[in-house]
Design goal:
This protein is 74% helix and 0% strand. The chain is built from eight helices and no strands. The longest helix is centred in the middle third of the chain and has 26 residues.
Length: 165
């Protein structure tokens, strides 16, 4: 049985993310922002090294408790973050690229959201780092036939939220 409060929170993400383009932008930028943060942490706290990426990944392992496919997809995306960080190393260009990802992509994400959804995104930490990434990975990166009833329940519940203005 699926936790109703979890489904309700996912329905809120569904309500706020209707545009397919916006969904894809959110997925890519979420993991690139985490790449930037992980790379900057490993650069400015050398004792951490690439362990910084592991520290950022650990909270995302809870995705496995909700859906194995989303957990696997998340693991692959974090592995790509680690690989990218290892490839660019600690050159000054790599640090600038990571800083740019960490600083500019949240702004880009917000502008895309405003343009495609036509209203301001919610600014809840739990929504931003947990519910929305899970929902978007489930909706966009899993086949349409996968957990069809669960996805339909989320979308149906999203109709309870106030209309956009």
């Amino acid at each position: 049985m699926v936790d109703k409060s979890f489904v309700n929170s996912l329905s809120f993400s569904s309500f706020y993310h209707q545009s397919e383009f916006n969904k894809i932008v959110h997925i890519v930028t979420h993991f690139m922002i985490l790449f930037g943060l992980g790379h900057l942490m490993s650069h400015f706290i050398p004792a951490l090294g690439h362990l910084a990426h592991v520290l950022l990944y650990i909270p995302h392992t809870v995705f496995f408790t909700r859906d194995v496919r989303v957990g696997v997809i998340t693991t692959i995306l974090f592995a790509l973050n680690y690989a990218l960080s290892a490839v660019i190393g600690h050159s000054s260009n790599g640090v600038y690229f990571a800083a740019g990802c960490f600083a500019a992509l949240p702004i880009f994400q917000m502008l895309v959201h405003l343009n495609f959804e036509k209203f301001q995104p919610p600014f809840s930490v739990l929504e931003t780092v947990y519910y929305t990434p899970f929902y978007l990975l489930l909706q966009v990166l899993t086949p349409a036939s996968y957990r069809k009833d669960f996805k339909k329940e989320i979308v149906d519940l999203s109709k309870q939220w106030p209309k956009k203005e």
